[in-house]
Design a protein that fits this description.
8 strands, alpha/beta, about 300 residues, 6-stranded mixed beta sheet, 10 helices, poly(A)-specific ribonuclease, two-stranded antiparallel ribbon
């Protein structure tokens, strides 16, 4: 991990870095993502119902702007390639909505808001170029830690629109852009010794003896740690990805991708569980065998051109 470089991306080197990103994505189809944003305008109570949690999320994201997007590319065998930290100039610290406490915290974590505003990337430019890259790559996997806000910001960025009105509409729209989604915090709930998933990324990394590279609460460093933790988690607990694809921590609807995948012969198709019951904990050695799991056969898809909605 210490050999992985966190590549800083600004307006001046965007094209060069996206070219390398595109080339790397051909062999490394896991995108571990993290975002930095101006904090919460509404704080949601821990025991709030799902409708209120999503309503607050929508309000927070619709009324704030993304500051950083970190993406680390890796493969299914845990090989980490590179990390990109995209800095966006759209956020104006003097005029845009923000949480002052969060801004002070990000400053202490090393974010240079003056440089980001001056030298950063316009999101409209990034959106067009990034969608062109994603459209020519199939079977991408998106990895997050407690990733509801991260994916929601990425969805807002790629769709160039406000978030949908309900959480059910949110997962439907997310399925257009994200082929497969894995939330490490959700997976940790079913792994013995991981506190039922009630722990942060740094604590989980410590338990799994994964070291951090770079400063915490910078999108590049956090995305790199997310990628390394996911690789270690899969290796230690022998995680079968298909059991957790599409499940996000703290929301009940599953993201079920509508994008086509490579055809697998019907007799080789794996089985997909419905969401595991939340109060239960499992040891993730092989396929979960909880009696309340229900399985259905994965549908067969035909490989097509993977195009996104046209966004200008």
């Amino acid at each position: 991990m210490n050999s992985v470089k966190i590549r800083q991306v600004w307006g001046c080197n965007l094209d060069q870095e996206l070219l390398l990103f595109d080339q790397t994505l051909r062999r490394h189809n896991l995108l571990s993502v993290d975002t930095e944003f101006p904090g919460f305008l509404r704080n949601t109570p821990r025991d709030a119902p799902e409708t209120l949690r999503y309503s607050d999320l929508k309000f927070n994201i619709d009324n704030t702007k993304l500051i950083q997007l970190g993406i680390t590319l890796s493969d299914d065998y845990g090989n980490i390639s590179s990390t990109w930290e995209f800095n966006f100039c759209d956020f104006d610290i003097d005029n845009d909505a923000c949480n002052e406490t969060s801004i002070d915290f990000l400053k202490k974590s090393g974010l240079d808001f003056e440089r980001i505003r001056k030298d950063g990337i316009f999101m409209s430019v990034f959106r067009r170029k990034f969608l062109e890259i994603l459209s020519v790559h199939a079977n991408l996997k998106w990895v997050t830690f407690h990733g509801l806000y991260d994916l929601a910001y990425v969805l807002k960025l790629l769709s160039n629109n406000s978030l949908p009105l309900t959480v059910f509409d949110f997962v439907k729209e997310a399925a257009v852009y994200f082929t497969a989604v894995f939330d490490i915090k959700f997976i940790a709930r079913f792994c013995k010794g991981l506190m039922g998933g009630e722990l942060g990324l740094n604590r989980l990394a410590c338990i799994l003896t994964v070291d951090r590279c770079g400063e915490a609460h910078n999108a590049g460093s956090d995305s790199l740690l997310t990628a390394c933790v996911f690789a270690k988690l899969k290796n230690v607990y022998r995680i079968e990805e298909i059991n957790f694809d599409g499940f996000l921590y703290s929301v009940s609807p599953k993201i079920q991708s509508m994008r086509p995948k490579i055809v697998v012969p019907h007799y080789c198709q794996p089985l997909i569980p419905c969401r595991p019951p939340f109060p239960k904990m499992m040891v993730c050695y092989g396929r979960p065998t909880h009696p309340q799991y229900h399985f259905q056969v994965r549908p067969t898809y035909v490989m097509q051109s993977t195009m996104f909605p046209c966004v200008l």
